[in-house]
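user: can you give me the structure for this one chain? C-alpha cells are fine.
assistant: on it. calling the predictor now.
[tool input]
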Amino acid sequence: MDLFLETPQQQAERMLRQQQRLMEMQMQGAAVQPPAQNAATAVSFAGEVDPGAYSVQQDSYAQELAFDKRRARRRRWVQRLRTLAMIVLIPLGLAAIFLASYALTCILNGASPSEVLQHLTALGQRLGDVVTTIRAGWES
C-alpha cells in the first residue's frame, strides 16, 4: 500500500536537487534557508535511506487513511439509522394506510363523520382487546 511513498531512488534525486538549489543560492549570495522541514530525508549518495526520516508522502497518506476511516464510520452510522428508520416507519405507514382505507370504506358505505369516528373508536377498542389477550397468553 505504498501509493504515495517515494522510492529510495526518488528520495535521493530530490535531495540532490535540493542540495544543488542550496549551492546555487549560496553562490548568488542570497539569504540561505535550510531545506523545508517536511522534505528532509536522510539519503546518502549510495542511496541508503534513514528509516526514521520524515516523509510528506507518508503523512499525506496517513491523512487520507484517517479521512477514509471517518467516512466509512459515518457511512455505517447512516446505514444503521436508515435501517432503524425502515423498521419503525414501514409498520407505521402500513397502519396509516389501513386506517385510511378503513375510514374510506366506511364513508363509501354511507357512514356519516360521527359514525366513522365511532367505527374507528370500536376498532381501537378491539385492537386493545387483542393486545391484552396476547399479553395474558404471553404471561401464562
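assistant: here you go. Helices lie at 8-28, 56-108, 113-139. Residues 20 and 26 are 10 Å apart (CA to CA).
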